[in-house]
């Protein structure tokens, strides 16, 4: 696939002045410089010179240039819509990047779903997990993990001739999940029963996969460092620190279990890189423990309707922790109800929320 025409289109449409302004606004927000209201950045719309064709994600998994195109189209769409996210892309291989390193079978979703692949639980479940921990291997050239680094190297090569694109379109972390979701993906739903009888193995598994995430990110950041020494991007949202841990699986355990099993590993990752936590679904039952993680800077939640948002706000914005990518309906509801958001909420669902259109 010849990508030059798409790079050239972006090179023409990206306004360096607008991008510099947006970056300054995001840095001010991330630094808690806003004192009231909420943060809702935007840029002037910039239409493409031609229609960018749609692409099915299934066609991108085995074709790096097609995957780069898919990500560039996302950048084009932000420019077309006047979105306020910073321009960014990632190696977009789904939640199975690390599990596939350890033998989890990758399965491609039906084409009509047009969504990222998943992985199947290991056949030996807990026995296989014990074997993985005992071996302690971290081969980042395997399976989807290898494609992540191939993507990064190919992007560096293709973007080099385009000064504006290479300067203003930032690479961000692949979806490495978090220790608990990784263990669940490999172990399966039996984890939630075995956690009572096999606590030592659960502790060991969570610790090992925290180690894997840390090692993976250190290697990835050598090729593509975060935005700067203090900040990075996730879904185009700038925040302090170098990682956003995915914690979707924590909705399945109690707050006390999160504190005992998961929080120590999340703390290790955030202590290493700085950053925040993402969760889909319900998180108000453990958000208090999340707020106690040393160095946490931001929380991203995609489904406020499943949460007691006053509990969320008390344990985020009231404690100096930003909320990024919050759906605008909730932001406007809270503001209309007189809830003081303290200038610490970014209004506008990111791609993490999997929304077709975010109402502005």
Q: What order do the helices and strands come in, and which of them pair?
A:
Elements: H1 4-13, H2 16-30, H3 64-81, E1 88-89, H4 97-101, E2 106-107, E3 118-119, H5 126-135, H6 143-159, H7 163-168, E4 170-171, H8 179-187, H9 191-197, H10 199-223, E5 231-234, E6 237-240, E7 243-246, H11 255-273, E8 275-279, H12 287-290, E9 296-301, H13 309-314, E10 322-326, H14 328-336, E11 345-347
Parallel strand pairs: 1-4, 7-8, 8-9, 9-10, 10-11
Antiparallel strand pairs: 2-3, 5-6
Helix pairs in contact: 1-3, 3-6, 5-10, 8-10, 10-11
What does this protein look like?
With about 350 residues, this protein is an alpha/beta fold. The chain has one domain (about 10-355): TIM Barrel (Alpha-Beta Barrel). It is built from 14 helices and eleven strands. It has helices spanning about 5-15, 15-30, 65-80, 95-100, 125-135, 145-160, 165-170, 180-185, 190-195, 200-225, 255-275, 285-290, 310-315, 330-335; strands spanning about 90, 105, 120, 170, 230-235, 235-240, 245, 275-280, 295-300, 320-325, 345. It has a five-stranded parallel β-sheet. Helix 5 (about 125-135) packs across helix 10, helix 8 crosses helix 10 and helix 10 runs parallel beside helix 11 (about 255-275). Residues about 350-360 have low confidence and may be disordered.
């Amino acid at each position: 696939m010849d990508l030059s025409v798409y790079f050239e289109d972006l090179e023409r449409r990206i306004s360096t002045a607008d991008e510099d302004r947006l970056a300054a606004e995001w840095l001010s927000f991330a630094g808690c410089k806003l004192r009231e209201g909420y943060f809702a950045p935007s840029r002037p719309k910039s239409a493409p010179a031609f229609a960018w064709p749609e692409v099915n994600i299934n066609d991108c998994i085995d074709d790096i240039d097609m995957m780069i195109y898919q990500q560039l189209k996302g950048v084009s769409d932000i420019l077309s819509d006047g979105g306020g996210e910073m321009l960014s892309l990632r190696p977009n291989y789904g939640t199975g990047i690390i599990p596939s390193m350890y033998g989890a079978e990758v399965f491609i979703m039906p084409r009509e779903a047009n969504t990222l692949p998943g992985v199947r639980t290991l056949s030996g479940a807990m026995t296989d997990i014990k074997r993985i921990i005992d071996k302690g291997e971290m081969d980042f050239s395997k399976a989807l993990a290898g494609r992540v680094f191939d993507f990064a190297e190919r992007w560096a090569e293709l973007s080099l001739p385009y000064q504006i694109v290479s300067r203003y379109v930032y690479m961000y972390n692949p979806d490495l999940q978090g220790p608990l979701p990784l263990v669940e993906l490999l172990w399966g739903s039996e984890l939630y029963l075995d956690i009572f009888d096999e606590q030592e193995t659960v502790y060991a598994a969570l610790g090992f996969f925290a180690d894997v995430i840390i090692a993976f990110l250190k290697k990835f950041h050598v090729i593509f460092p975060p935005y700067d020494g203090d900040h990075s991007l996730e879904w185009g949202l700038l925040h302090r620190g170098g990682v956003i841990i995915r914690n979707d699986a924590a909705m399945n355990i109690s707050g006390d279990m999160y504190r005992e099993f998961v929080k120590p590993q999340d703390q290790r990752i955030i202590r290493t890189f700085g950053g925040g936590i993402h969760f889909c679904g319900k998180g108000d039952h453990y958000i208090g423990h999340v707020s106690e993680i040393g160095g946490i800077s931001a929380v991203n939640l995609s489904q406020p309707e499943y949460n007691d948002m006053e509990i969320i706000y008390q344990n985020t914005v009231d404690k100096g922790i930003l909320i990024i990518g919050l759906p605008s309906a909730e932001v406007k509801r809270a503001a209309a109800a007189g809830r003081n958001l303290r200038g610490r909420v970014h209004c506008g669902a990111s791609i993490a929320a999997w929304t077709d259109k975010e109402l502005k």
